[in-house]
Structure formats: structure tokens, C-alpha cells
Write a structure and sequence with these properties.
alpha+beta; three-stranded antiparallel beta sheet; 2 helices; 9 strands; about 15% helix
């Protein structure tokens, strides 16, 4: 894992675990200011990120807009910084795994959710010692 690149380019879009401005620092993007910092380093129309486990999207145009989403179309000339949610630890109150489908031919991004065994996954997280860090907002941590 240590040898993996922090940022990847894939088929005209980019992926990063945390932020584009300092990916090795594992920063969190919860709001527009954090997204604006990543847009400065974004070289593709779309960048997918995670780390917060909260599905949300930020759009850069004359100002940065943010919010939750289910499906939207990519508009030419804009940049999108899209959090895909979490497959194993949703932190937004929905007990389903979240992922996105990026339809390149349609130019759309759709958030999807599927059920999974939350208690089993949570037990594995705790057993591995991956407890929530103290400096995160309470709604981000596991209960």
C-alpha cells in the first residue's frame, strides 16, 4: 500500500483518497473551502475522492457549490470533486454501502447504495484497532 500513488488518472478523470492539494496528509473535505483547495490542483473535469465516507459533490464554476446528490450530468467547462461515500463504513446515517457509477458515454454520475452486514463490518473495524480519531466531528465516527 505504501508504494501506491496518492493520485491516479483514469480514463480522463482522477481519483484521490483524501485531497488533491496535499494527498499525503490525508485531509478531510467537508465543506466548500476544502474543495476549493483541491480544485486548484485538479487537472481533469472530474475527480473522485473519499476519506470522509460522506457522499457529496462540489462543483467549481464562478463559486464552489456543494451538497448531496443521487444522479447528475457533467456540464462541459466545469470541474466536479465527488465523494463516492463508503462501501464498508457509511457515516451519513444510511446503513447501506455507497458507490458511484460514472457513465462516460452519458456524461453522468449516479450514487447507488446496497445493503451489507453493518454489524459484522463494524466489529472487524474495531477488532483491527481502526477506531475513530478524536479530532473528527462526532457524526463522522462510528458509534
Amino acid at each position: 500500500m505504501r508504494d501506491l500513488k496518492h493520485v491516479r488518472l483514469v480514463a480522463g478523470f482522477s481519483i484521490v483518497h483524501a485531497t488533491l492539494d496535499a494527498p499525503q496528509r490525508w485531509g478531510y473535505v467537508f465543506e466548500k473551502l476544502g474543495a476549493a483547495a483541491s480544485f486548484t490542483y485538479q487537472n481533469t473535469p472530474v475527480c473522485f475522492f473519499g476519506h470522509t465516507h460522506l457522499p457529496m459533490t462540489f462543483v467549481r464554476d464562478s463559486l464552489v457549490r456543494g451538497g448531496s446528490y443521487s444522479k447528475f450530468r457533467i456540464e462541459p467547462g466545469r470541474k466536479y470533486f465527488v465523494n463516492v461515500g463508503s462501501v464498508g463504513e457509511p457515516r451519513d446515517g444510511y446503513p447501506k454501502a455507497a458507490y458511484v457509477i460514472y457513465d462516460l458515454s452519458e456524461g453522468s454520475i449516479e450514487l447507488r447504495r446496497i445493503p451489507y452486514d453493518v454489524q459484522k463490518a463494524e466489529a472487524k473495524v474495531h477488532a483491527a484497532g481502526l477506531l475513530c480519531r478524536q479530532n473528527l466531528p462526532s457524526e463522522v465516527c462510528l458509534n
